[in-house]
Protein backbone atom coordinates (compact mmCIF):
# COMPACT_ATOMS: atom_id res chain seq x y z
CA UNK A 1 0.00 0.00 0.00
CA UNK A 2 1.23 3.50 -0.79
CA UNK A 3 2.46 5.53 2.15
CA UNK A 4 -0.35 7.30 3.90
CA UNK A 5 0.17 10.18 6.24
CA UNK A 6 -2.29 11.75 8.62
CA UNK A 7 -2.07 15.55 8.81
CA UNK A 8 -1.03 17.51 11.88
CA UNK A 9 -4.05 19.15 13.38
CA UNK A 10 -4.04 22.89 13.90
CA UNK A 11 -6.64 25.01 15.66
CA UNK A 12 -7.66 26.65 12.38
CA UNK A 13 -8.21 23.38 10.56
CA UNK A 14 -10.07 21.94 13.55
CA UNK A 15 -12.35 25.01 13.68
CA UNK A 16 -12.97 24.89 9.94
CA UNK A 17 -13.98 21.22 10.17
CA UNK A 18 -16.18 21.98 13.17
CA UNK A 19 -18.13 24.67 11.30
CA UNK A 20 -18.55 22.66 8.09
CA UNK A 21 -19.55 19.71 10.28
CA UNK A 22 -22.21 21.81 12.01
CA UNK A 23 -23.92 22.95 8.81
CA UNK A 24 -23.56 19.51 7.21
CA UNK A 25 -25.09 17.94 10.32
CA UNK A 26 -28.04 20.29 10.22
CA UNK A 27 -28.79 19.36 6.61
CA UNK A 28 -28.42 15.63 7.38
CA UNK A 29 -30.70 15.82 10.39
CA UNK A 30 -33.31 17.55 8.26
CA UNK A 31 -33.30 15.78 4.89
CA UNK A 32 -31.76 12.46 5.98
CA UNK A 33 -28.46 12.87 4.17
CA UNK A 34 -26.40 15.43 2.36
CA UNK A 35 -23.67 17.52 3.82
CA UNK A 36 -21.22 14.70 3.26
CA UNK A 37 -20.43 15.81 -0.27
CA UNK A 38 -18.68 18.90 1.00
CA UNK A 39 -16.63 17.18 3.72
CA UNK A 40 -14.31 15.24 1.45
CA UNK A 41 -13.22 18.27 -0.62
CA UNK A 42 -12.97 20.34 2.59
CA UNK A 43 -10.59 17.83 4.15
CA UNK A 44 -8.57 17.49 0.97
CA UNK A 45 -8.16 21.27 0.88
CA UNK A 46 -6.56 20.96 4.32
CA UNK A 47 -4.05 18.50 2.87
CA UNK A 48 -5.69 15.20 3.84
CA UNK A 49 -5.00 12.45 1.26
CA UNK A 50 -8.11 11.50 -0.78
CA UNK A 51 -8.60 8.01 0.63
CA UNK A 52 -8.19 9.21 4.24
CA UNK A 53 -10.69 12.03 3.58
CA UNK A 54 -13.27 9.56 2.22
CA UNK A 55 -12.68 7.07 5.06
CA UNK A 56 -12.81 9.69 7.83
CA UNK A 57 -15.93 11.21 6.31
CA UNK A 58 -17.71 7.85 6.44
CA UNK A 59 -16.52 7.35 10.03
CA UNK A 60 -18.23 10.58 11.10
CA UNK A 61 -21.34 9.78 9.08
CA UNK A 62 -22.52 6.67 10.87
CA UNK A 63 -22.51 8.04 14.44
CA UNK A 64 -24.16 11.22 13.16
CA UNK A 65 -26.87 9.23 11.40
CA UNK A 66 -27.35 7.11 14.53
CA UNK A 67 -27.89 10.12 16.80
CA UNK A 68 -30.27 11.73 14.31
CA UNK A 69 -32.18 8.49 13.72
CA UNK A 70 -32.72 7.97 17.46
CA UNK A 71 -33.89 11.56 17.83
CA UNK A 72 -36.33 11.36 14.95
CA UNK A 73 -37.53 7.94 16.10
CA UNK A 74 -38.72 9.71 19.26
CA UNK A 75 -40.87 11.93 17.03
CA UNK A 76 -42.36 8.83 15.43
CA UNK A 77 -40.88 9.55 12.01
CA UNK A 78 -38.65 6.51 11.46
CA UNK A 79 -39.75 3.29 9.76
CA UNK A 80 -37.10 1.04 11.31
CA UNK A 81 -38.03 -2.05 9.30
CA UNK A 82 -37.87 -0.25 5.96
CA UNK A 83 -34.61 1.43 7.01
CA UNK A 84 -32.92 -1.84 7.95
CA UNK A 85 -33.99 -3.65 4.77
CA UNK A 86 -33.03 -0.74 2.51
CA UNK A 87 -29.78 -0.40 4.49
CA UNK A 88 -28.73 -4.02 4.03
CA UNK A 89 -29.27 -3.87 0.27
CA UNK A 90 -27.58 -0.48 0.18
CA UNK A 91 -24.56 -2.09 1.81
CA UNK A 92 -24.48 -4.56 -1.07
CA UNK A 93 -24.83 -1.72 -3.58
CA UNK A 94 -21.95 0.09 -1.96
CA UNK A 95 -19.67 -2.93 -2.27
CA UNK A 96 -20.53 -3.35 -5.95
CA UNK A 97 -20.12 0.41 -6.48
CA UNK A 98 -16.70 0.33 -4.86
CA UNK A 99 -15.62 -2.40 -7.29
CA UNK A 100 -16.96 -0.43 -10.25
CA UNK A 101 -14.91 2.55 -9.09
CA UNK A 102 -11.79 0.41 -8.72
CA UNK A 103 -12.28 -1.06 -12.22
CA UNK A 104 -12.69 2.40 -13.74
CA UNK A 105 -9.65 3.62 -11.83
CA UNK A 106 -7.54 0.71 -13.08
CA UNK A 107 -8.63 1.26 -16.68
CA UNK A 108 -8.86 5.04 -16.98
CA UNK A 109 -6.99 6.33 -13.92
CA UNK A 110 -8.09 8.93 -11.37
CA UNK A 111 -9.52 11.27 -14.00
CA UNK A 112 -11.71 8.47 -15.32
CA UNK A 113 -13.15 7.97 -11.83
CA UNK A 114 -13.75 11.69 -11.42
CA UNK A 115 -15.52 11.87 -14.76
CA UNK A 116 -17.67 8.84 -13.83
CA UNK A 117 -18.58 10.52 -10.52
CA UNK A 118 -19.46 13.75 -12.34
CA UNK A 119 -21.65 11.98 -14.88
CA UNK A 120 -23.50 10.17 -12.07
CA UNK A 121 -23.86 13.49 -10.23
CA UNK A 122 -25.27 15.30 -13.25
CA UNK A 123 -27.66 12.58 -14.39
CA UNK A 124 -29.07 11.76 -10.94
CA UNK A 125 -29.26 15.31 -9.66
CA UNK A 126 -30.73 16.74 -12.85
CA UNK A 127 -33.51 14.16 -13.06
CA UNK A 128 -34.29 13.59 -9.38
CA UNK A 129 -33.47 17.12 -8.19
CA UNK A 130 -35.71 18.90 -10.65
CA UNK A 131 -38.50 16.42 -9.95
CA UNK A 132 -38.27 16.92 -6.17
CA UNK A 133 -38.08 20.69 -6.48
CA UNK A 134 -41.04 20.84 -8.87
CA UNK A 135 -43.09 18.66 -6.55
CA UNK A 136 -42.17 20.84 -3.54
CA UNK A 137 -43.17 24.03 -5.33
CA UNK A 138 -46.46 22.48 -6.45
CA UNK A 139 -47.22 21.40 -2.87
CA UNK A 140 -46.43 24.86 -1.51
CA UNK A 141 -48.68 26.48 -4.05
CA UNK A 142 -51.51 24.15 -3.06
CA UNK A 143 -50.85 24.90 0.61
CA UNK A 144 -50.93 28.65 0.00
CA UNK A 145 -54.18 28.40 -1.94
CA UNK A 146 -55.77 26.46 0.90
CA UNK A 147 -54.62 29.04 3.45
CA UNK A 148 -51.63 27.20 4.88
CA UNK A 149 -53.31 23.86 5.40
CA UNK A 150 -50.88 21.05 4.71
CA UNK A 151 -51.69 19.27 1.49
CA UNK A 152 -52.83 15.73 2.24
CA UNK A 153 -50.18 13.12 1.54
CA UNK A 154 -50.91 11.94 -1.96
CA UNK A 155 -49.45 8.84 -3.54
CA UNK A 156 -47.82 9.21 -6.92
CA UNK A 157 -49.27 7.06 -9.67
CA UNK A 158 -46.09 5.01 -9.56
CA UNK A 159 -46.40 4.42 -5.80
CA UNK A 160 -50.08 3.42 -6.12
CA UNK A 161 -49.09 0.91 -8.79
CA UNK A 162 -46.14 -0.38 -6.71
CA UNK A 163 -48.40 -0.84 -3.68
CA UNK A 164 -50.92 -2.73 -5.80
CA UNK A 165 -48.40 -5.32 -6.98
CA UNK A 166 -48.74 -8.58 -5.10
CA UNK A 167 -45.93 -11.12 -5.40
CA UNK A 168 -46.68 -14.05 -3.06
CA UNK A 169 -44.02 -14.81 -0.48
CA UNK A 170 -42.27 -11.45 -0.84
CA UNK A 171 -44.83 -9.08 0.66
CA UNK A 172 -43.99 -7.03 3.73
CA UNK A 173 -45.97 -4.43 5.66
CA UNK A 174 -44.28 -1.06 6.25
CA UNK A 175 -45.58 1.48 8.77
CA UNK A 176 -44.48 4.50 6.75
CA UNK A 177 -46.40 3.29 3.71
CA UNK A 178 -49.36 1.91 5.65
CA UNK A 179 -49.32 -0.81 3.05
CA UNK A 180 -47.64 -4.01 1.99
CA UNK A 181 -44.92 -3.80 -0.65
CA UNK A 182 -42.91 -6.55 -2.27
CA UNK A 183 -39.35 -7.01 -1.06
CA UNK A 184 -38.40 -7.40 -4.73
CA UNK A 185 -39.15 -3.69 -5.18
CA UNK A 186 -37.53 -2.45 -1.96
CA UNK A 187 -34.30 -4.39 -2.59
CA UNK A 188 -33.24 -2.70 -5.85
CA UNK A 189 -34.06 0.73 -4.39
CA UNK A 190 -31.73 0.01 -1.45
CA UNK A 191 -29.12 -1.31 -3.84
CA UNK A 192 -29.28 1.86 -5.97
CA UNK A 193 -28.94 3.99 -2.84
CA UNK A 194 -25.71 2.19 -1.95
CA UNK A 195 -24.43 2.35 -5.50
CA UNK A 196 -24.92 6.11 -5.52
CA UNK A 197 -23.38 6.49 -2.07
CA UNK A 198 -20.22 4.75 -3.25
CA UNK A 199 -19.93 7.22 -6.15
CA UNK A 200 -20.96 10.57 -4.70
CA UNK A 201 -21.11 9.90 -0.93
CA UNK A 202 -24.77 10.95 -0.74
CA UNK A 203 -26.96 7.90 -1.28
CA UNK A 204 -29.90 9.79 0.17
CA UNK A 205 -30.29 11.72 -3.08
CA UNK A 206 -31.71 8.47 -4.47
CA UNK A 207 -32.91 6.78 -1.29
CA UNK A 208 -35.23 9.54 -0.06
CA UNK A 209 -36.93 10.29 -3.41
CA UNK A 210 -37.26 6.53 -4.00
CA UNK A 211 -39.08 6.08 -0.69
CA UNK A 212 -41.29 9.10 -1.44
CA UNK A 213 -42.18 8.62 -5.07
CA UNK A 214 -41.74 4.88 -5.73
CA UNK A 215 -42.87 3.43 -2.39
CA UNK A 216 -45.17 6.26 -1.29
CA UNK A 217 -43.73 7.37 2.06
CA UNK A 218 -44.32 10.96 3.30
CA UNK A 219 -41.22 13.18 2.90
CA UNK A 220 -40.65 13.56 6.64
CA UNK A 221 -40.74 9.79 7.20
CA UNK A 222 -38.60 9.09 4.14
CA UNK A 223 -35.90 11.52 5.25
CA UNK A 224 -35.96 10.07 8.79
CA UNK A 225 -35.80 6.48 7.55
CA UNK A 226 -32.87 7.37 5.31
CA UNK A 227 -30.88 8.00 8.50
CA UNK A 228 -31.15 4.30 9.37
CA UNK A 229 -29.95 3.43 5.86
CA UNK A 230 -27.06 5.91 6.24
CA UNK A 231 -26.12 4.41 9.61
CA UNK A 232 -25.95 0.86 8.25
CA UNK A 233 -24.02 1.93 5.13
CA UNK A 234 -21.71 4.16 7.15
CA UNK A 235 -20.91 1.49 9.70
CA UNK A 236 -20.18 -1.08 6.98
CA UNK A 237 -18.03 1.41 5.07
CA UNK A 238 -16.13 2.44 8.18
CA UNK A 239 -15.32 -1.19 9.04
CA UNK A 240 -13.94 -1.73 5.52
CA UNK A 241 -11.80 1.42 5.59
CA UNK A 242 -10.74 0.87 9.21
CA UNK A 243 -9.44 -2.58 8.27
CA UNK A 244 -7.21 -0.80 5.74
CA UNK A 245 -6.07 1.55 8.51
CA UNK A 246 -7.02 4.69 6.61
CA UNK A 247 -9.60 6.13 9.02
CA UNK A 248 -8.26 9.21 10.78
CA UNK A 249 -10.52 9.04 13.81
CA UNK A 250 -9.26 12.41 15.10
CA UNK A 251 -10.56 14.16 12.00
CA UNK A 252 -13.81 12.19 12.10
CA UNK A 253 -14.48 13.12 15.74
CA UNK A 254 -13.76 16.82 15.16
CA UNK A 255 -16.31 16.91 12.35
CA UNK A 256 -18.66 14.95 14.61
CA UNK A 257 -18.24 17.58 17.35
CA UNK A 258 -19.86 20.16 15.07
CA UNK A 259 -22.24 17.89 13.24
CA UNK A 260 -23.92 16.53 16.37
CA UNK A 261 -24.89 20.09 17.32
CA UNK A 262 -26.25 20.41 13.78
CA UNK A 263 -28.21 17.14 13.56
CA UNK A 264 -30.14 17.96 16.71
CA UNK A 265 -31.30 21.25 15.19
CA UNK A 266 -32.09 19.62 11.85
CA UNK A 267 -34.10 16.85 13.54
CA UNK A 268 -35.99 19.30 15.77
CA UNK A 269 -36.69 21.40 12.68
CA UNK A 270 -38.64 18.60 11.00
CA UNK A 271 -41.29 18.78 13.74
CA UNK A 272 -42.08 22.38 12.80
CA UNK A 273 -42.29 22.16 9.04
CA UNK A 274 -44.55 20.60 6.46
CA UNK A 275 -43.55 17.88 4.05
CA UNK A 276 -43.11 20.39 1.25
CA UNK A 277 -40.29 22.20 3.09
CA UNK A 278 -38.24 19.02 3.41
CA UNK A 279 -38.73 18.43 -0.30
CA UNK A 280 -37.88 22.04 -1.12
CA UNK A 281 -34.58 22.01 0.82
CA UNK A 282 -33.61 18.69 -0.71
CA UNK A 283 -34.43 19.76 -4.27
CA UNK A 284 -32.65 23.08 -3.83
CA UNK A 285 -29.43 21.50 -2.55
CA UNK A 286 -29.47 18.90 -5.32
CA UNK A 287 -29.79 21.52 -8.04
CA UNK A 288 -26.99 23.73 -6.64
CA UNK A 289 -24.70 20.70 -6.26
CA UNK A 290 -25.51 19.85 -9.86
CA UNK A 291 -24.19 23.22 -10.99
CA UNK A 292 -20.94 22.68 -9.08
CA UNK A 293 -20.16 19.82 -11.46
CA UNK A 294 -20.09 22.08 -14.51
CA UNK A 295 -16.93 23.63 -13.10
CA UNK A 296 -15.12 20.30 -12.66
CA UNK A 297 -15.95 18.52 -15.90
CA UNK A 298 -13.84 20.63 -18.36
CA UNK A 299 -10.72 19.81 -16.32
CA UNK A 300 -11.40 16.07 -16.44
CA UNK A 301 -12.12 16.15 -20.17
CA UNK A 302 -8.90 18.07 -20.72
CA UNK A 303 -6.89 15.55 -18.66
CA UNK A 304 -8.36 12.67 -20.65
CA UNK A 305 -7.53 14.61 -23.84
CA UNK A 306 -11.14 14.53 -24.96
CA UNK A 307 -10.98 18.29 -25.54
CA UNK A 308 -8.11 20.66 -26.31
CA UNK A 309 -5.80 20.75 -23.28
CA UNK A 310 -6.44 23.58 -20.83
CA UNK A 311 -3.88 25.45 -18.73
CA UNK A 312 -3.45 23.88 -15.25
CA UNK A 313 -4.21 27.27 -13.65
CA UNK A 314 -7.56 27.41 -15.46
CA UNK A 315 -8.42 23.89 -14.27
CA UNK A 316 -7.43 24.77 -10.69
CA UNK A 317 -9.48 27.97 -10.87
CA UNK A 318 -12.55 26.12 -12.16
CA UNK A 319 -12.15 23.47 -9.45
CA UNK A 320 -12.08 26.19 -6.81
CA UNK A 321 -15.30 27.62 -8.22
CA UNK A 322 -16.81 24.13 -8.03
CA UNK A 323 -15.78 23.76 -4.38
CA UNK A 324 -17.22 27.18 -3.56
CA UNK A 325 -20.51 26.18 -5.20
CA UNK A 326 -20.63 23.07 -2.99
CA UNK A 327 -20.20 25.21 0.10
CA UNK A 328 -22.89 27.51 -1.25
CA UNK A 329 -25.26 24.54 -1.64
CA UNK A 330 -24.69 23.56 1.96
CA UNK A 331 -24.97 27.12 3.27
CA UNK A 332 -28.20 27.72 1.33
CA UNK A 333 -29.64 24.48 2.71
CA UNK A 334 -28.56 25.41 6.24
CA UNK A 335 -30.00 28.89 6.01
CA UNK A 336 -33.32 27.66 4.60
CA UNK A 337 -33.59 25.18 7.47
CA UNK A 338 -32.87 27.84 10.12
CA UNK A 339 -35.44 30.21 8.61
CA UNK A 340 -38.01 27.38 8.44
CA UNK A 341 -37.38 26.50 12.10
CA UNK A 342 -37.64 30.09 13.35
CA UNK A 343 -40.85 30.64 11.40
CA UNK A 344 -42.24 27.27 12.47
CA UNK A 345 -41.46 27.86 16.15
CA UNK A 346 -43.04 31.34 16.10
CA UNK A 347 -46.18 30.00 14.44
CA UNK A 348 -46.33 27.08 16.86
CA UNK A 349 -46.07 29.42 19.84
CA UNK A 350 -48.80 31.60 18.41
CA UNK A 351 -51.09 28.61 17.93
CA UNK A 352 -50.39 27.28 21.44
CA UNK A 353 -51.07 30.65 23.08
CA UNK A 354 -54.23 31.14 21.00
CA UNK A 355 -55.63 27.82 22.11
CA UNK B 1 -36.02 19.28 40.92
CA UNK B 2 -37.63 21.34 38.15
CA UNK B 3 -37.51 20.14 34.55
CA UNK B 4 -35.19 22.96 33.58
CA UNK B 5 -32.82 22.26 36.44
CA UNK B 6 -32.70 18.58 35.49
CA UNK B 7 -31.81 19.54 31.90
CA UNK B 8 -29.13 21.89 33.19
CA UNK B 9 -27.56 19.14 35.32
CA UNK B 10 -27.65 16.65 32.44
CA UNK B 11 -26.14 19.26 30.08
CA UNK B 12 -23.33 19.89 32.56
CA UNK B 13 -22.59 16.19 33.16
CA UNK B 14 -22.55 15.24 29.46
CA UNK B 15 -20.80 18.49 28.55
CA UNK B 16 -17.92 17.86 30.93
CA UNK B 17 -17.70 14.20 29.85
CA UNK B 18 -17.63 15.26 26.22
CA UNK B 19 -14.90 17.78 26.94
CA UNK B 20 -12.84 15.12 28.72
CA UNK B 21 -13.26 12.77 25.74
CA UNK B 22 -12.04 15.44 23.32
CA UNK B 23 -9.10 16.27 25.59
CA UNK B 24 -8.17 12.58 25.64
CA UNK B 25 -8.44 12.52 21.84
CA UNK B 26 -5.85 15.30 21.60
CA UNK B 27 -3.60 13.90 24.33
CA UNK B 28 -3.54 10.45 22.69
CA UNK B 29 -3.52 11.83 19.16
CA UNK B 30 -0.12 10.31 18.33
CA UNK B 31 -1.16 6.94 19.72
CA UNK B 32 -4.23 6.94 17.46
CA UNK B 33 -2.10 7.67 14.41
CA UNK B 34 0.22 4.84 15.45
CA UNK B 35 -2.67 2.39 15.84
CA UNK B 36 -3.88 3.21 12.32
CA UNK B 37 -0.37 2.57 11.04
CA UNK B 38 -0.21 -0.76 12.89
CA UNK B 39 -3.57 -1.74 11.33
CA UNK B 40 -2.04 -1.10 7.90
CA UNK B 41 0.91 -3.26 8.89
CA UNK B 42 -1.33 -6.23 9.68
CA UNK B 43 -2.69 -5.90 13.24
CA UNK B 44 -6.22 -6.00 11.88
CA UNK B 45 -7.96 -6.18 15.25
CA UNK B 46 -7.06 -2.52 15.79
CA UNK B 47 -9.75 -1.59 13.24
CA UNK B 48 -12.08 -1.65 16.25
CA UNK B 49 -10.41 1.45 17.75
CA UNK B 50 -12.09 4.06 15.50
CA UNK B 51 -15.41 2.19 15.60
CA UNK B 52 -15.53 2.05 19.40
CA UNK B 53 -14.40 5.68 19.69
CA UNK B 54 -17.12 6.75 17.25
CA UNK B 55 -19.85 4.96 19.23
CA UNK B 56 -18.70 6.37 22.59
CA UNK B 57 -18.45 9.92 21.23
CA UNK B 58 -21.81 9.71 19.51
CA UNK B 59 -23.48 8.70 22.79
CA UNK B 60 -21.77 11.21 25.10
CA UNK B 61 -21.46 14.15 22.73
CA UNK B 62 -24.83 13.39 21.13
CA UNK B 63 -26.53 13.50 24.55
CA UNK B 64 -24.73 16.72 25.39
CA UNK B 65 -25.79 18.50 22.19
CA UNK B 66 -29.37 17.29 22.66
CA UNK B 67 -29.61 18.67 26.21
CA UNK B 68 -27.70 21.80 25.19
CA UNK B 69 -30.34 22.92 22.66
CA UNK B 70 -33.13 21.89 25.00
CA UNK B 71 -31.66 24.11 27.69
CA UNK B 72 -31.58 26.98 25.19
CA UNK B 73 -35.26 26.40 24.48
CA UNK B 74 -34.82 24.87 21.02
CA UNK B 75 -37.05 21.84 21.31
CA UNK B 76 -39.39 19.83 19.12
CA UNK B 77 -42.98 20.91 18.53
CA UNK B 78 -45.10 19.49 21.34
CA UNK B 79 -47.24 17.49 18.97
CA UNK B 80 -45.10 15.38 16.68
CA UNK B 81 -46.25 14.66 13.17
Task: Please tell me about this protein's structure.
The complex is a heterodimer of chains A (355) and B (81). Chain A has 355 residues and is mainly alpha-helical. Chain A has one domain (11-350). Chain A has helices spanning 11-31, 36-45, 50-74, 80-145, 157-164, 183-200, 204-215, 219-243, 249-269, 275-303, 312-354, and strands at residues 171-174, 179-182. Chain A has a two-stranded antiparallel sheet with strand order 1-2. In chain A, helix 3 runs antiparallel to helix 8, helix 4 packs across helix 10 (275-303) and helix 5 (157-164) crosses helix 7 (204-215). Chain A is globular, with a radius of gyration of 20 Å. Chain A starts with 10 loop residues before the first helix and ends with a helix. Chain B has 81 residues and is an all-alpha fold. Chain B has helices at residues 3-27, 29-40, 48-71. In chain B, helix 1 (3-27) packs antiparallel against helix 3. The A-B interface holds A 1, 4, 6, 9, 59-60, 62-64, 66-67, 70-71, 74-77, 220, 235, 238-239, 242-250, 252-253, 256-257, 260-261, 263-265, 267-268, 270-272, 341, 344-345, 348, 352 and B 22, 25-26, 29, 32-33, 36-41, 44, 46-51, 53-55, 57-58, 61-62, 64-66, 68-69, 74-78, 80-81.
Quick synopsis:
The complex is a heterodimer of chains A (355) and B (81). Chain A is mainly alpha-helical and 355 residues long.
Indicate the proportion of strand residues of chain B: under 5%
Number of helices in the DSSP assignment of chain A: 11
Using the CA coordinates, give the radius of gyration of chain B: 18 Å
- What does the main sheet of chain B amount to? none
- Distance between the first and last residues' Cα of chain B: 30 Å
Say how many strands of chain A there are: 2
What is the mean predicted local confidence, pLDDT of chain B?
92
